């Protein structure tokens, strides 16, 4: 069982997204610690940065250094890893609720917008790897969607390296599982919808 530590990004809360019905409104991205509860209930689905969706299985009290500390015992759904998240530190480590349906739909809309993609310029892979890794660790689903979109579009112009494919797989898993829960759809349906959005990028490779 792993004791959770604060995320490197020092993200104190999830950035809620407002669904406009058309596109992702960048002005609607904001920090609001009041909307990120630090108290979760047993059986509630939550998200832990870089690990993804988990379930609060119970709340335990442990005697550590002579002081009693309460922990959320969270089981990550994708790999059954169990985390011990201190209740008082839950917000600091980035533990948050699963995104709402409106937030999930806003993420889907953001994937359709390629205006922020400047194209592959052969920039230093180590720098891009650090950037993408930090975004995946942030716990912000918008960051995860950004990494997925970037790598899919980069793959249109070059063969993705092993490291890039690993990051793409991680981003895909994190994104599709949470969206499947927020939108009440099967994970495979979400994957199919994303593949359809990027059919112009993916299909040519399949044809080859």
UniProtKB/TrEMBL annotation:
Name of this chain's protein: Card-like transcriptional regulator
Organism this protein belongs to: hydrocarbon metagenome
Pfam families membership: CarD_C, CarD_TRCF_RID
Residue ranges occupied by any CarD-like/TRCF RNAP-interacting domain in the UniProt entry: 39-152
A biological process from GO: rRNA transcription
Gene3D superfamilies found in the cross-reference section: 2.40.10.170, CarD-like, C-terminal domain
Database matches in InterPro entries: CarD-like/TRCF_RID (IPR003711), CarD-like/TRCF_RID_sf (IPR036101), CarD-like_C (IPR042215), CarD-like_regulator (IPR052531), CarD_C (IPR048792)
Higher taxonomy: unclassified sequences, metagenomes, ecological metagenomes
